Each structure stands twice: as C-alpha cells, then as structure tokens.
Amino acid sequence: MLITGERAVGAIVDDLSMSQPQVSKHLRVLSEVGLVSCRAEGRRRLYRLEPEHLQPLHDWVIKYERAINDRLDRMDDYLTELQRQGEGNDA
User: Fold this and answer.
1) Secondary structure of residue 35 in the 3-state scheme
2) Does 45 share its domain with 58?
3) 11 and 45: one domain?
4) Cβ atoms of 27 and 47 closer than 8 Å
5) What is the distance between the terminal CA atoms of the chain, rounded to a whole angstrom?
6) How many independent structural domains does the chain possess?
7) Dihedral sign from CA coordinates of 55, 60, 63, 68
8) DSSP-derived secondary structure letter, 18
9) Beta strands in the chain (DSSP E)
10) What's the CATH code of the domain at 29?
11) Over the stretch 18-76, which tens digit does the pLDDT of each residue have?
C-alpha cells in the first residue's frame, strides 16, 4: 500500500479492513527493520516505504528466480522432446 506514497495509519486501516492495533504492530515491525519510516504530522503518523532497504531481498530473490527459470527451461526442452518422440510414434 505504501508503494504509491506516504499514508496515514487510519487510511491503511481502512484499506486493509484490519484493526488499528494490528496495522500499527505490522508498521512497527517494518519500521524496526528499516522498510518503512514514520513521521508525525500533528496527531497523525504518516508512513512511507524505504525501497532502498528492499534491495538485499530483491538480490536474494533474483538468485532463486534464475535457478527456477533454468529448471523451467530444461523442463520445457524435455516436454518438447517428448512431444517429438510421441509424434514419431504416431506415424
């Protein structure tokens, strides 16, 4: 939800249909690990995403994405070969 910009806790609560304590707990955890930051504006707390802190997660996922894509490519090659073999047996 924060990818579109800064949001107040109340707006997040409304959009997620969760209780305010639940949303605040999640935001606190995300804040503790640096994924979101918070600033006060009067009585409101505004949260925003800190996307640069997502880079290590992105790098980790990319490694597995490559491995999965390699396996899917090999599976595709294998299925193509099976189809060719099946077409040769039909003749």
Assistant:
1) coil
2) no
3) yes
4) yes
5) 57
6) 2
7) negative
8) -
9) 7-8, 36-41, 44-49
10) 1.10.10.10
11) 899 999 999 999 999 999 999 999 999 999 999 898 898 889 899 899 889 999 999 99
